[in-house]
Amino acid sequence: MSSNMDNKLEHETHAEQKTEIEQSSHSAAATSIKQKSTEQPNASQDNAEMAISAPLVKTHREHTSHQPIAPEQWLSFDQVPLDPVHANHYTQVNTESLIFSCLLLVVASLVLILPGDFYPAKVLAVSLGALLIISVVSYVRYRHAKSLAYVVCEHELIMQQGFWWVKRTSLPYSRLQHVSLSHGPLERHFNLATLKCFSAGSGSAEIELPGIEQQTAENLRQHLLAQAAKTNPSVATESKLAAEPVDQINLESSEVEQQILKQTTRSSQVAADNSTQDKAMNKQMTAQRGPADDA
């Protein structure tokens, strides 16, 4: 009997040890799975941070590196194709040269007629001088008109002028402060306008581009102001005013004039009331002084 009891106890202790071993193995497997699951997000997060920081480090190295740039890779606006001005501008310049020639011939005729001495040498000298001046001025002005060209880029306005000394001006929209249009009698006759662009800190126009068709010049003016308003908030007010219709501006000005008229009428009424009160007080004072003087 005792041996049977001992065998039972041994079997029970072995079974308990097996269950404890199985439980400990299950718990160890569960903790290992949890550790792996917690390590995987951390690893993925580290990989993502490394993937983000890698291009930043690369760009930082690229910006801080002092590697020379070949002349072929230099950025230049000399290769940008330019658009010429309107063809009517050449006709306008020729017309102005013709008017100048007529005026100069009139002056030369007066120089010959007023003294009264018609020497052949003097007549020849004055005539040749006038013709030489007319030819040179007409040629120079025509060549200058033919050299005018411009292009509207994404971030700047480029203008080129000059045939002996070529000048190319680039005005970024971030420096653009004011844009105006002007047209004289001949420009109105040929439906042309002159575009003037003023930059910040400059009293005169940095770009003065003549020979643009009036509607094109107005559209270009609004476009330049809109682009400048994106980069420079101080120009937003001017671009808003330029985009408003003329009728709305006239309506607002008429409302302001009506308000001013109302204020002036009110002030005149107040002044009239004050004058009547003063007159009444003066009458009362004179009436009181009369009996006193008699006494």
Oligomer: single chain
Structure annotation, total helices: 7
Largest sheet: 4 strands, antiparallel
Name the strands of the widest sheet in spatial order. 1-2-3-4
Helix content: 55-70%
Per DSSP, what share of the residues sits in E-state strands of 2 or more residues?
A: 5-15%
Which regions have little confidence, pLDDT < 50, spanning 5+ residues?
1-6, 39-43
N- to C-terminal distance: 161 Å
Could you tell me the radius of gyration in angstroms?
Answer: 46 Å
Number of strands: 7
Overall outline: flat
User: From the helix content, strand content and strand pairing, which structural class follows?
Assistant: alpha+beta
Mean pLDDT: 74
The SSE order reads HEHHEEEEHEEHHH
Please supply descriptive tags for the structure shown above:
295 residues, 3-stranded antiparallel beta sheet, 4-stranded antiparallel beta sheet, flat, 7 strands, 7 helices, 67% helix, alpha+beta
Task: Please characterize this protein's 3D structure.
Helix content is 67%, strand content 14%. The chain has seven helices and seven strands; from the N terminus they run αβααββββαββααα. It has helices at 2-64, 88-113, 120-147, 185-189, 214-231, 236-243, 246-294, and strands at 83-84, 149-152, 156-161, 167-172, 176-182, 192-199, 207-213. Strands 1-2-3-4 form a four-stranded antiparallel beta sheet. It has 295 residues and is an alpha+beta fold.
